[in-house]
Design a protein that fits this description.
The protein is mainly alpha-helical and 522 residues long. The protein folds into two domains: 26-262 and 274-355, no CATH class; 410-518. It contains 20 helices and four strands.
Length: 522
């Protein structure tokens, strides 16, 4: 028995190939990138401030209490994000920013781990799975900042698993059947999604496309002279979509949650002011990557001798349109296309082999198994030393050495509070998020990344003042502003204007922020 167990153990060890190392390295690379990426100031801080209020009061806020420009203004978005806001605040309260970054890294890496495993099942190839996961990851880099949206990538990956297992076979002909318990992850994923982020219709769309594909298969079979025997295949996708729709009603707003989507989708301020809501272009790396990936994906589907299914074509077209409309949709194009590419890439590889008439023999046994384990061990060591508690010794660029991004006005805010500079305060939009966390209630914000909260006229004033236009001081006077906290990179014109004005005095300056006060203040 011992000899048999030892033999099985040795056989298992010998099965660890270079392809497994590629997959491990892919996921490790994603984790290391996330783990060494500090918390940026734009969104995280106002979300955990809201989470702090929820934890303290037991109620979800319904109006703004952080600004002096629109105090008391209704803000229904709290009811969309509340679950992840409470979660992120709880993690922060437990272990600070380092634990938040670790938690965030685990969530996102697990999402891509599920995508990789799904690609492996569909393609029967670890190599293809690693390549397709890298494709998805490249399109997601721009959306991996710490914020509630991160959990949706994991939830989307779970739903993809349900859909692909429910749809049937992989490229090797293996079939998996779903058991009744599969409705649990569908229900759970959608309940969490609808209470964490407004992108939950993406999950519904994926399930609806599965149902549409099954309806099409039945119609094709019927037109081909077959009976209605396939109708029973509608049961699984129909039940999944029904359960998901029911789950979406379990939120503080009930069916009115759709109003939030209409508000965000129809807001001209959101569409025009926030870069990630704009359409992609070759002017940015992220937009360029998406456009190239879109063309490559279309080429794979067109050239593959394996005819794309309706589900694959509708998925490709739907998420291509989403990505072309807004950069926020690019990450989803990568996630949903990875399994589709995993189905077609092996077919293309076989077509290429036949074209060059090069036979593929048995792959030689991997004689470098020990080296594979050594390399895998080094990869895991790299993962450990990249953790936010230890990454200080990695020699990273200055902007990535800390847990909190160097863009964040931590020291400037400390100076503001210690010196008791006079309010109200005008500041860069990204600073508003950190000020919401660190300077309330002493310094209510002018604006912050809750874009849809503020009316267009306030954003117009913000843009004009930040650009140092000729009437910038008159606009500040209209709001009674006494202190400026400015971004030295994004508001250089206003810094120069304030520095040349007799009415303003420089009182603080560092790499992240510059502070001016009225000359009359002492």
């Amino acid at each position: 028995m011992k000899a048999m167990a030892s033999g099985r153990f040795k056989h298992a060890l010998s099965g660890f190939s270079i392809e497994h190392v590629w997959c491990l390295t892919t996921l490790a690379g994603i984790f290391v990138f996330l783990s060494t990426h500090p918390i940026r100031p734009q969104d995280f801080w106002w979300h955990i401030k809201a989470g702090q209020e929820i934890a303290a009061t037991g109620h979800i806020p319904s109006v703004d209490s952080f600004s002096f420009t629109v105090p008391g203004q209704a803000y229904p978005s709290y009811e969309i994000y509340w679950l992840m806001e409470l979660t992120l605040y709880s993690v922060y309260a437990l272990g600070g920013g380092a634990l938040v970054v670790f938690f965030h890294s685990l969530i996102v890496t697990t999402a891509y781990g599920l995508v990789l495993w799904l690609c492996r099942w569909l393609s029967s190839s670890w190599r293809v799975a690693a390549l397709c996961t890298l494709f998805a990851a490249a399109l997601g880099l721009n959306d991996w900042n710490v914020r509630p949206q991160a959990v949706t990538f994991l939830l989307g990956a779970v739903l993809l698993w349900v859909v692909y297992y429910g749809r049937g076979v992989n490229t090797a002909g293996a079939r998996r059947s779903l058991r009744p318990w599969w409705l649990v992850p569908v229900f759970g994923s959608m309940v969490v999604w609808v209470n964490s982020h407004g992108s939950f219709p993406i999950g519904l769309a994926v399930l609806a496309m599965w149902l549409a594909d099954e309806v099409w298969q039945i119609l094709k079979a019927r037109l081909g002279g077959e009976g209605w025997g396939r109708v029973r295949r509608l049961l699984q996708p129909a039940m999944a979509l029904a359960v998901a729709l029911l789950a979406c009603l379990i939120n503080p707003r009930g069916a009115d949650v759709i109003i939030y989507l209409d508000t965000m989708g129809g807001s001209s301020v959101v569409q025009n002011l926030v870069p990630e809501w704009t359409p992609p272009s070759f002017d940015s790396l992220h937009g360029g990557l998406f456009l190239v990936a879109l063309l490559l994906s279309a080429a794979v589907l067109a050239l593959s001798s394996r005819r794309p299914s309706l589900f694959q074509m509708v998925t490709f077209l739907s998420f291509a349109i989403l990505g072309l409309r807004t950069l926020r949709g690019v990450i989803w194009f990568g996630i949903v296309m990875a399994p589709i590419l995993a189905v077609h890439l092996p077919t293309l590889a076989e077509q290429a082999r036949l074209m060059i008439q090069r036979p593929i023999g048995q792959r030689p046994a991997d004689s470098k198994v020990v080296l594979n384990y050594v390399f895998a061990g080094l990869v895991l060591v790299g993962v450990l030393i990249s953790l936010p508690w230890f990454k200080g010794g990695l020699g990273l660029p200055e902007e990535k050495t800390g847990v909190i991004s160097s863009e964040t006005p931590v020291e400037a805010t400390r100076f503001l509070l210690q010196e008791g500079l006079p309010g109200p305060l005008f500041h860069h939009i990204s600073f508003g998020s950190y000020l919401t966390w660190a300077a309330q209630p002493a310094y209510p914000v002018f604006v912050d990344p809750r874009i849809e909260l503020y009316p267009p006229e306030i954003w117009r004033d913000y843009m004009e003042i930040s650009a140092g236009r000729c009437d910038w001081e008159a606009r500040l006077d209209g709001y009674g502003i006494n202190t400026l906290m400015l971004n030295p990179r994004a508001q250089r014109s206003l810094i120069e204007a304030a520095g040349g004005s007799p009415h303003w005095r420089l009182v603080y300056e560092d790499a992240s922020a510059v502070l001016f006060t009225r000359e009359s203040w002492r």
